[in-house]
Amino acid sequence: MKILVTGAAGFIGFSFSENILKNTEIQIIGIDNLNPYYDVKLKEKRLDILKGFKNFKFFDEDIINYEELDEIFNLEKPDLIVHLAAQAGVRYSLENPHVYEYSNNLGTLNIFELAKKYGIKRVIFASSSSVYGGNEKTPFLESDNVDKPVSLYAATKKYNELIAHVYNHLYGIEMIGLRFFTVYGEFGRPDMAYWKFTKNILEEKPIDVYNYGKMKRDFTYISDIVEGIKSAVFLSKKIDYEIFNLGGDNPIELEYMISLIEKETGKKAIKNYLPVQEGDVLITMADLTKSKENLKYYPNICIEEGIKRFVKWYIQNRY
Questions:
Q1: 211: which DSSP letter?
Q2: Which CATH number goes with the domain that contains 19?
Q3: Within a domain: 110
Q4: What are the residue boundaries of the NAD-dependent epimerase/dehydratase domain, all occurrences included (predicted)?
Q5: Of 145, 151, 174, 309, whose CB neighbour count within 10 A is largest?
Q6: 61 pLDDT exceeds 90?
């Protein structure tokens, strides 16, 4: 079996690929363009680990380049796609909207079109809790209305879900969309709050705390996310088009997360309190009923344990 993983040098793509390579004989075909949105050295380090496995093959390519992607598909003929490549970041989408249009929309369209061309039966693709926008009803259900995004990033993820439905309806490709909720952990993204907080607290620098620390996030540890993706990959029953929440099942206030980092670093944070930023939402909270029933998804790493693991890893590596 061959699984093509887009965004293989990214946080989630790397973590999923490493798990599969360690535990199975499945071949992973990784695609990534090593986007410089954050330090490329971290992506290269992830890749170095993956390249240590004999069943891993990597292509340095951008998913917006259809003809080059076509050559890779024709050469490798994957059996299944795990599409995780995207331009990430809610706030960055306010500054560089065109990057999101190209990477998230055109890139996803290319992947789906090639799935059709090469007869690939199932595609698992990354969506986001951001699609719920300013929904005030919690927890968020997959059946909730998501027609009012509050960031361009969220709008691109909603678009991905829509065209996935089209490709299922017209061509019968099984489409499984996974709405990730604030994924964190080792080898994570340096642009995310938990990473910035850890770095600055250790260096005794101020941290920016938006909405005065009163935002809540359904933080989800990376190993739980990986298990959710694997469940979608190996799901035995036929799926037409389904969306699933993958969350941590326990929204945490920002102030509490900061206190955990303080505990693990042994240092006090210097807090710079700020109002909420454009595009941010006040709370995310996943209803996991559907995911538990269909994917047997039960997150088991609590925020206390997850932050402990991350801070230990960060101190050892200091990326």
A1: G
A2: 3.40.50.720
A3: yes
A4: 3-247
A5: 151
A6: yes
Torsional class of 30: left (φ above 0), alpha (ψ -120 to 50), beta (otherwise): beta
Q: Which of 92, 100, 153, 314 is catalytic?
A: 153
The enclosing H or E element of 45 equals: helix 40-50
**Is this prediction's pTM over 0.85?**
yes
Host domain of residue 72: 2-187+219-250+285-299
For residue 125, give both structure tokens: 């693709």
If 0-12 CB within 10 Å is exposed, 13-18 middle and 19+ buried, where does residue 144 land?
A: middle
* Residue 37 annotated among the catalytic residues of the structure: no
By the 8 A CB rule, do 230 and 16 touch?
yes
CA 4 to CA 6: how far, in whole Å? Answer: 7
Closest-CA residue to 40 (of 182, 186, 195, 190): 190
Residue 277 within any structural domain of the chain? no
Q: Terminal CA-to-CA distance of the chain, rounded, Å? A: 34
d(CA 92, CA 81): 27
Nearest one of 226, 231, 217, 255 to 140, comparing CA atoms = 217
Q: Which residue has the tokens 């006040």?
A: 282
pLDDT > 70? residue 319 = no
